[in-house]
Write a structure and sequence with these properties.
The complex is a heterotrimer. Chain A folds into 3 domains: 4-91 and 173-257, Rossmann fold (3-Layer(aba) Sandwich); 105-172, no CATH class; 305-328 and 343-527, P-loop containing nucleotide triphosphate hydrolases (Rossmann fold, 3-Layer(aba) Sandwich). Chain A is 37% helix and 25% strand. Chain A is built from 20 helices and 20 strands. By secondary structure, chain B is an all-alpha fold. Chain B has one domain: MetI-like (MetI-like fold). The longest helix of chain B is centred in the middle third of the chain and has 37 residues, at 87-123. In chain B, 49% of the residues are buried. In chain C, α11 (258-268) packs antiparallel against α12 (271-298). The longest helix of chain C has 36 residues, at 86-121. Chain C has 13 helices and no strands. By secondary structure, chain C is mostly helical. The chains are: A alpha/beta, B mainly alpha, C mainly alpha.
């Protein structure tokens, strides 16, 4: 018998702008000892469904309009708040997306960890503490006794997620709901956490409901996959069936959006455009402390016309390197030359002319556009600043740019907040292309986007790259994306370049141990 | 050629009209009835204050000692004070002074604070450290007591009052502006502007200031009532506005002395001050919600 | 943490020094000497008086002499009350003002936080609107208006409570304490509501609910700690405001406290008294600011770790 059976669940939100059906009659079930994954993009209603069952959406504005959710023979949706509370944290536990914000910064790890025990089992504190320490050990935290008395800010994201998992498991729940538990983590950490969840599930006999936007992540661990789109379940089944013979076009679209394949470099006669020698960017947080070596002794060459992929995890210094090349981050030491000119020496008008030739595309399309400027103003600014075109030509040039990045002309007087993430990224790309640059630094340009949008933007970048004859430094943490787009790859770790080579070399014959562990962490082996 | 210019001209005409953040905020503000009422009352008060010499029913200085204090009547809507002067006239003239202090001292604070904060935030580094350390030290000074001292020492001078109050209030303004500029500087769209080759002046004007305006507007609206309170407080103690000029604080102070016999002399000036403070605070709160400004101070 | 405290203390020293110096020279720069308005003072007598109060010395010597006295805790003699020192007058007023301030602060904290927290639990409902509307009234009804109105209603019309004095008749402490505390209760209510709303929207509150904690436990154990930090940080400025407010309240209710002495000294041009009181009150305010800053920082584990320096 299924552990949890959801039938025709309907949830709506009523705001000033009217009522929005977030979940429109969703049905699925979770078997004991199995991992069921719900896949969907933002706005698909995947998280809302799960939160609504446990009474964790604010009502109002939220409202459960119908359906049942049978757990243990009882309908969660018809339970009182008190009855539901007795189930939450005891029979059904949850872990969330962002471990940085999900632990209370004002309480020690231990206080938070034993809370479910004190609340549900009324255990004496001493006994609870012993259980908690044992569990911390089990989820792979070193020195659990000291950890117990520490505060969350003393730990990295991966460690905090382990704490969250321990906290969820402390009452031996029968169902664990994991809402994008690895999305905020680095790939290598993600692989560890996924492994941990899978192990604990086997060992402790629990059913898991795993919510994710990423098919690749669940491909290896799911027993059953539910695909949601706009509040409805469009398809569900065993992973193997789904991957080999997707019935619904949306599932197919999701599968197609997974970056696959390996770019084969078509560059025949490589000439260097950018040469970096022993570049250092050190930050001095205060006079006494040791400097933070964000970029340390990096030397590399970028050839005209190539896409160089720069891979690294958070804190590796990859973004700082990209910004230093554009003179957006300070350079402590070393040389950057662009087309034979020493960029490091430029000032005033020389620097301005150089800026015209190099542009940047940023990660967060919500932060990279001035919220008080229309698309027209945003695109016109670089054109007018550098005198790219005459005033009389301005409208025509802007129209052309919008065509290039795939934006309808009718959007021209709209403001950034009126667009979706993908559309905003198109505007930002248009702005970068306006000066007809030769070189572009793209800093994680697709990682804030939904998977299907991600695929579109990647295609756009590759098309525009060849159309405009661009040289590109493409920075990403996502190995699959890099493999898809880059001619050549450099790997960064702790401020240093640890490996570089053609995409083929790096993926098929990595030399360094760190590169190997990165490659081993790529999720979605089952998909290949 | 003519065809391309034709389609280019169409580009803007055919485009859907976007709605800027200011327009959105204005729409939200208009839905907030209390804020709208506050704004309307405020505009009315300002018109009355400007036109007081023409609108006032009686001469400000005319005394009628035989009449003395009378309760509200058809001739004197709000009654008269112990010298037989019309209270409505007194309140209108007092309001001119109270509002003027509120607006002018706030303007002083705005000017100094915004400039100081913008420079400190944008230049950064050591300049910022020195400038903000100075603000910190001044912040720790017990200014309320200092203003009292100033008024005691240099006499009750209105100009000095403007300066003294403005000198206190600019500190918070500078802190807000600085934190705004600092956080905006780190925004990717400012980085994008730098990478486009825009100079610092253009970046401040086009990208930083328009985005820092919201919190400044909100805080300005909320500074005016606190300045008016400070003026009234000092005048009540006899350390602010001096006769023959008057202000609401002074009228309240007179009213408090004689409230047992002539309660209207306390109640009406008090009402005038309270309604004005209400209007400003409701407008300020409404603006805060409409412009989506979070937090207040640092 | 110790480094943070010493750092802040070191920062407070120059502030207090600036206060002393600025006040001293401001007072000395005042037009007209202290004995000018006394009508029949013979030139010889005036001279003797000035010598007695060291007013015949050059300004810098007066300043140094004052600093030296101050370092012994001596604020000098009062100009207007011959034979009484500023210290004596201050210490006779201090207990009264301290008691008044304490009651006002308690009213502000108890009523303010309770109202603010309750309002934050059900935002945009009656439970929110009613206390917040009252808070708005509190903010827009300054003490110098509220005081007389309370006197009028409860003292004169209803005759429930005495309208002046301090500790002489039972119940005479009620109206002054409420008058002084009301506005701060309103500020505290608004601050704690905003602080709580901010915290209640955090992800870790959802975590606490997912653990099966009751709404009450969520609020008490998880939200209050962070939500009330702004209130603690506000205590410093509130203390300064309460002292200034005591000027008005003590005048209205004729209470023999520091505030009333200060206002009287201001009118009497009793310069040593003004100087002494300013220095004393300013030092108190600076120290109280320090305490509230340190407490607010202490409550935040992240800051606490930073201040203790070095250790992770």
């Amino acid at each position: 018998m299924a552990l949890l059976t959801v039938d025709s669940l309907q949830v709506s939100f009523t705001t000033r702008n009217g009522t929005h059906q977030a979940v429109k009659g969703v049905s699925f079930s979770v078997e004991p000892r199995k991992l069921t994954a719900i896949i969907g993009e933002s706005g698909s209603g995947k998280s809302v469904s799960c939160y609504a069952m446990l009474g964790l959406i604010p009502t109002p504005p939220g409202r459960i309009d119908g359906g049942t959710a049978l757990f243990d023979g009882r309908d969660l949706l018809s339970l009182s708040e008190g009855e539901l509370r007795a189930i939450r944290g005891r029979d059904i536990a949850m872990i969330f997306q962002d471990p940085m914000t999900c632990l209370n910064p004002f309480m020690t790890i231990g206080e938070q960890l034993i809370e479910p025990l004190l609340v549900h089992q009324k255990l004496p504190k001493k006994q609870a503490t012993e259980r908690a320490i044992a569990l911390l050990d089990e989820v792979g935290i070193r020195a659990p006794e000291t950890t117990f008395n520490a505060y969350p800010h003393e730990f990295s994201g991966g460690m905090r997620q382990r704490v969250m998992i321990a906290m969820a498991l402390i009452n031996e729940p029968r169902l664990l709901i994991a809402d994008e538990p690895t999305t905020a983590l680095d790939v290598t950490i993600q692989a560890q956490i996924l492994k941990l969840i899978a192990e604990l599930q086997k060992k402790r006999d629990i059913g898991v409901l795993f919510i994710s936007h990423d098919l690749a992540v669940v491909a290896d661990i799911a027993d059953h996959i539910v695909v949601m789109e706009q509040g409805e379940v469009v398809e569900q089944g065993a992973p193997s069936d789904l991957f080999s013979a997707a019935k619904h076009p949306y599932t197919q679209k999701l599968l197609d959006a997974i970056p696959t394949g390996q770019r084969v470099s078509t560059l025949t006669d490589p000439k260097p455009l950018i040469e970096v020698q022993q570049l250092r960017t050190w930050f001095y947080p205060n006079a006494k402390a040791a400097p933070v070596k964000a970029v340390d002794d990096v030397s590399l060459t970028i050839h005209r016309g190539e896409i160089l992929g720069l891979v690294g995890e958070s804190g590796s210094g990859k973004s700082t390197l990209g910004r230093a090349l554009l003179r957006l981050a300070p350079i402590t030491d070393g040389q950057v030359s662009f087309d034979g000119t020493r960029v490091t020496d430029l000032e005033g008008n020389g620097l301005k002319e150089f800026r015209r030739r190099m542009q940047m595309i940023f990660q967060d399309p919500f932060a990279s556009l001035n919220p008080r400027m229309t698309v027209y103003d945003t695109l016109a600014e670089p054109l007018l600043l550098h005198g790219i075109c005459a005033k009389s030509e301005l409208d025509r040039v802007i129209a052309r740019l919008m065509d290039d990045v795939g934006l309808a002309h009718s959007f021209i007087r709209k403001y950034p907040h009126e667009f979706s993430g993908g559309q905003r990224q198109r505007i930002a790309i248009g702005r970068a292309l306006a000066t007809k640059p030769e070189f572009i630094v793209a800093d994680e340009p697709v990682s804030a986007l939904d998977v299907t949008i991600q695929a579109q933007i990647l295609d756009l970048l590759m098309d525009l790259g060849s159309e405009y004859g661009l040289t590109m430094l493409f920075i990403s943490h996502d190995m699959a994306v890099i493999r898809h787009i880059a001619d050549r790859i450099v790997v960064m770790y702790n401020g240093r370049l640890v490996e570089q080579g053609s995409t083929d070399q790096v993926f098929n014959a990595p030399k360094e141990a760190y590169t190997q562990s990165l490659l081993a962490s790529i999720p979605g082996a089952a998909l290949q | 050629m003519s065809q391309t210019t034709g389609s280019a001209a169409n580009l803007l005409d055919q485009a859907e009209q976007g709605s800027s953040l200011w327009q959105d905020a204005w729409r939200r503000l208009r839905k907030n009835k209390l804020a709208v009422a506050g704004g309307a009352i405020l505009i009315l008060l300002m018109i009355v204050a400007l036109l007081t010499p023409w609108l006032a029913p009686y001469n400000y200085e005319t005394q009628d000692l035989d009449l003395g204090a009378t309760p509200p009547s058809a001739q004197h809507w709000l009654g008269t004070d112990i010298f037989g002067r019309d209270l409505l006239t007194q309140i209108m003239y007092g309001g001119r002074v109270s509002l003027a202090v509120g607006f002018i001292a706030t303007a002083v604070a705005l000017l100094i604070g915004v400039t100081w904060g913008a420079v400190a935030g944008y230049v950064g580094g050591k300049v910022d450290a020195v400038m903000m350390r100075l603000v910190d030290i001044l912040y720790a000074l017990p200014f309320m007591i200092f203003i009292v001292l100033l008024m005691v020492v240099f006499g009750r001078n209105v100009l000095l009052l403007f300066l003294a109050i403005g000198a206190v209030e600019w500190l918070t303004m500078a802190r807000i502006m600085r934190s705004q500029v600092q956080s905006l500087r780190q925004q990717e769209f400012v980085e994008a502007a730098i990478s486009l080759g825009l100079g610092p002046a253009a970046i401040l004007r086009r990208h930083v200031v328009p985005n820092a305006l919201g919190p400044i507007i909100v805080y300005t609206t909320l500074t005016i009532p606190s300045v008016m309170l400070l003026e009234a407080f000092l005048s009540f103690l006899g350390l602010g506005i001096q006769p023959p000029q008057t202000s609401w604080g002074l009228l309240i102070s007179y009213g408090a002395e004689t409230m047992e016999e002539y309660p209207w002399l306390l109640i009406f000036p008090g009402l005038a001050l309270t309604i004005t403070l209400f209007s400003l605070n409701f407008l300020g709160d409404g603006l805060r919600d409409a412009l989506d400004v979070r937090g207040s101070k640092d | 943490m110790l480094r943070f405290i010493t750092g802040r203390l070191l920062q407070a020293v120059p502030v207090i020094f600036i206060v002393i110096t600025a006040t001293f020279f401001l007072v000395r720069a005042a037009p007209g000497g202290p004995f000018d308005d006394e009508k029949v003072v013979l030139p010889e007598v005036k001279k003797a008086l000035e010598a007695q109060y060291k007013l015949d010395l050059p300004l810098h010597e007066q300043y140094l002499a004052y600093l030296s006295d101050l370092s012994h805790g001596d604020l000098g003699p009062s100009f207007k009350y011959p034979g009484r020192s500023v210290n004596e007058i201050l210490f006779s007023g201090l207990p009264v003002t301290a008691e008044l301030g304490l009651y006002a602060l308690l009213i502000a904290l108890i009523i303010g936080t309770t109202a603010g927290v309750f309002a934050s639990l059900k935002p945009n409902t009656a439970q929110d609107y009613i206390p917040m509307s009252l808070a708005m009234v509190g903010i827009c009804m300054p003490s110098f208006l509220l005081g007389p109105l309370l006197v009028l209603v409860f003292g004169i019309y209803l005759e429930w409570l005495p309208i002046s004095g301090w500790g002489a008749i039972p119940g005479d402490k009620i109206l002054p304490s409420i008058t002084l505390g009301a506005a701060y209760a309103a500020y505290v209510a608004r601050l704690s509501r905003a602080g709580m709303l901010e915290i209640l929207s955090q992800d870790y509150i959802r975590t606490a609910r997912a653990k099966g904690l009751s709404e009450w436990q969520v609020v008490i154990k998880h939200a209050l700690r962070g939500g009330l930090i702004p209130v603690i940080a506000f205590l410093g400025p509130a203390f300064a405001g309460l002292l200034a407010g005591s000027f008005v309240v003590e005048t209205i209710f004729q209470i023999p406290g520091l505030g009333r002495f200060y206002v009287q000294a201001a009118f009497n041009r009793d310069y040593t008294m003004i100087l002494g009181t300013t220095v004393f009150l300013s030092t108190l305010i600076v120290l109280f600011n320090l305490v509230s800053d340190i407490t607010a920082a202490w409550l935040n584990p992240r800051l606490r770790a930073q201040f203790s320096g070095g250790e992770r």
